[in-house]
Amino acid sequence: MQQVVLIGAGHASASAAKTLRREGFAGTIIVVGDEVYPPYQRPMLSKEFLLEDAGQDELWSISEDWCRENGVTLMLGRRAERIDIEQLAVELADGERLPADAVLIATGVQPRRLSSPPSPRVHYLKTLDEAIALREALQQGARVAIVGGGFIGLEIAAAARARDCAVTVFEADQLPLARILGDELGAAMARLHADNGVDLRTGVKVAEIVDLGDGGIEVVTDDGQRHQADIAVVGIGVTPNDAIARASEITVGNGIRVDQFCRTSAIGVFAAGDVANHYHPGLDTRLRVEHFDNASRQGAAAARNMLGQRVVYEDVHWFWSDQYDHSLQFVGHAAGYDRIVVRGDVDAFDFAAFYMKDDRVVAAFGIDRGAEILAAKSLIADKAPVDDEQLADEEVDLLELGSTKVDEEADDELPQTPDALDDPRFERVARSGQVTEGNARRFMIGETEVAVARWEGKVYALHNLCTHLACRLTAGKVDQAGLTCLCHGSIFELETGFPVNPPATKPVRTFPVIETEGQIYVRVRD
Fold it and tell me: 8: which of 106, 135, 330, 498 fits an S-S bond (Cβ 3.0–4.6 Å)?
């Protein structure tokens, strides 16, 4: 294979490009994007970037410098219009034709728009330019009307309140996020925003937004009520950018349809990220997932499949949201659940809620309960039967439930036998059977917290705290890419500790490991 073309300069393409190079692909990689920016992290646009806690340089998924150093050609401000699926070539709007041995479509989604005439006071949030304009508009004391009470609308509401704006949210359903979380937890989200000063108006549909000139804007609801504000932000969902697939006679249906190997109906053409409607073997259903972690992992899986590795993409989907001082996380696929089991205190916004079907966890949502959500990810993946009472009991360690249960010997009390090796700085931390394939476990060596992981039979040791926000890495996933911190999706190479996926930019420390005679030894002392 000599040349790969990645259509769409977003995070899925960035992940694919990095994976291709990590897997040893030495040919040409071309990334085509209609924006003028290199691939960047869109989740930050409604969080840190709006709050000015992150600058523009912190957004890049891959920088222009990285692309130069790794031989990746960025064709920015260019639009791909069609793929010649017979000759396998990408045709650009300006007439240029890019031959390819494999093509990835990662064109993402676009916001649904109201039928009202465009106005500089009516904002949407998908691109970096839109985020820059919105950040400038969120001046202290500004009256902000937000249409849509989904995750994007509520994140913007939280950011606007942090900037001391007066915020009103219009939501067509009776509760925000109820379609995703259910009524009880949708009500909790409504209380969270009300407690932080948001005027949340539910069961209200917006008919139009009128630009009043110097007087701001007016939101008109379908029952004739009028609400004046300085600006409006519309977040009423998205639609997949599948036009290039349609023009190329590639099968679509709620996005570009792909199989478990990220393959489209056209030979040599793959799709990943928000635009891909993929078959999930573990769930035996089709999903189109609009989350950063999915774009990262599916982009990597697509890259490996381009190289002929036949990697099945069936990850348990996960995403996060930061609102006010709280970290919200959701994992799994809640369709068809029959009850919710709660651990913690919903009223205090400190809980994990488990969506159950029969005796298994199919999804989980939590506020400030990252460890429980990450444990739930393992339970979902393992399809482990669990007991409702144990899930709800704060004294029960979720990592010890179901098939995640491991050897009961305490990690901190393992005897040390440095005399077993020539170098006495190596200390025994575990028996080989305690660190199973595709998992990571936490051990203390003196005052050093170490994550010991196994992949393809080999054992690795890394410092256990993510360099982004010091989350524990042992709650994350081990795979070809490395060790993932599931707090915000950073991935660290097992061998080097190098961050291969943002937001982390600094490596974690790695330690020498020896596995011999059924024992694992790690050296943390220099």
Answer: 106
